[in-house]
Amino acid sequence: MLYDLVVKNRTYRRFDESVHISEQQLLEWVNLVRYSASGANLQSLKYIISIEKEKNEKIFSTLGWAAYLKDWYGPVEGERPSAYIVQLLDTTIATNFFCDDGIAMQSILLAAVEAGFGGCIFRTINRQLLIEQLQIPEEYQVVNVIALGKPIEKVVIDEIKDGDVKYWRDNKGVHHVPKRSLDEIILKI
Amino acid sequence: MLYDLVVKNRTYRRFDESVHISEQQLLEWVNLVRYSASGANLQSLKYIISIEKEKNEKIFSTLGWAAYLKDWYGPVEGERPSAYIVQLLDTTIATNFFCDDGIAMQSILLAAVEAGFGGCIFRTINRQLLIEQLQIPEEYQVVNVIALGKPIEKVVIDEIKDGDVKYWRDNKGVHHVPKRSLDEIILKI
To answer: Is B116 in the A-facing interface, judged by CB distances under 8 Å?
Structure first.
């Protein structure tokens, strides 16, 4: 059921880097984007995939990890993502992508989870550095990056307390994410 | 499999309005948003649900239907959506929602499709009219509307030709949506 997949699709930031993701697998996940809704059907988003160590390292160096975990600067070697998908706006098609980016990423991440993997969406990206590192042509704008791998961390959902949305990691390394109740997100009017 | 669900999740604009969607069902779908990724975990989006005829009519009157179908102004009575979900930004939480809107809507729509329904995302909304019609408090901004129902139209995906992204309806009422190939959306660098 979709419910189980959505619940299992947590934001994972530590992976077993020794577990490879194939190019074929990544392409299958990105293929789902073609079947996902696109504002005015423009389909202005395009994708770079990465599974090679050197390319992965270049992308890794541009990402801002877990803003709320002040003493943690991202996964150590061996726990880094095995693959990345860079989402780009093709400005030769349009200057806008409406809400296509989130729709596409949810399709990709749910597919990754179904296949036993997991990932993390990044918007905190050193975009200029990423453009330089991957030599992305100037007609493309970096929108988001998805890091993917075999998760090795436990992520649990807690009830929100006093409106504090900050996620945190306990002394056993379990990652806690406070979520608003259904009651709180439904406006009764 | 997720693939089947994503492929089945087309943008539907004509429904069997006599098929009811329960409040409980809508709440289950919106509940998936709580388990979907949120930028900085802010969870700044909130939702109004509608299943009542009068409220549905108010929402319907604010929506812009299928911009590319020039001679069609939206579904006739009897073929209109049975339910709506209005997605709002709660500006008392944040002024931003990153890409949460698309992520959330994809979760909702996939759940609706799994349950035998389908829908359509609207960004072309007379927002001021919707705010007035539903008396939405001023701290909320209208982000998107999802219309939901039991689809009665056939939607097929075609290969794109000459870069023309416009969807169209053939003389049998089948809705055609041209999609870019996987090859076209992958940047090989």
So the answer is: no
B83, amino acid identity = A
Q: Is A178 on the interface with B (CB under 8 A)?
A: yes
Query: Is A111 in CB contact (< 8 Å) with chain B?
Result: yes
B140 touches chain A (CB under 8 A): yes
**Which pLDDT band, with edges at 50, 70 and 90, does A78 fall under?**
very high
User: B64 to chain A: which residues are within 8 Å by CB?
Assistant: none
Dist. CA B143–CA B125, nearest whole Å: 9
φ, ψ of residue B58 in degrees (nearest 5): -60, -45
C-alpha closest to that of A39 among A100, A105, A94, A106: A100
- This model's pTM is above 0.95: yes
What average pLDDT does range A25-38 have in this prediction?
A: 98
Q: What is the pLDDT of residues A124-182, one digit of tens each?
A: 999 999 999 999 999 999 999 999 999 999 999 999 999 999 999 999 999 999 999 99
**Quick check: B111 and A3 CB within 8 A?**
yes
End-to-end CA distance of chain B: 31
Q: Please count the residue pairs, one from chain A and one from chain B, whose beta carbons lie less than 8 angstroms apart.
A: 187
Report the chain A residue with the minimal C-alpha distance to residue B139: A187
Distance CA A68, CA B13 (A): 42
Integer-rounded Cα Rg, in Å, for chain B is 17
CA angle A105-B39-A73, nearest 5°?
100
Under an 8 A CB cutoff, do A189 and B134 touch? Answer: yes
Q: Which tokens go with B96?
A: 């931003």
**Average per-residue pLDDT in chain B?**
97
Amino acid B100: pLDDT: 98
Alpha-carbon distance of B33 to A181, in angstroms, equals: 10
| Touching A: B residues 29-58, CB under 8 Å | 30-37, 39-43, 45-49
Q: Which of residues 9-28 of A touch B (CB under 8 A)?
A: 9, 11, 27
ipTM summary value: 0.97
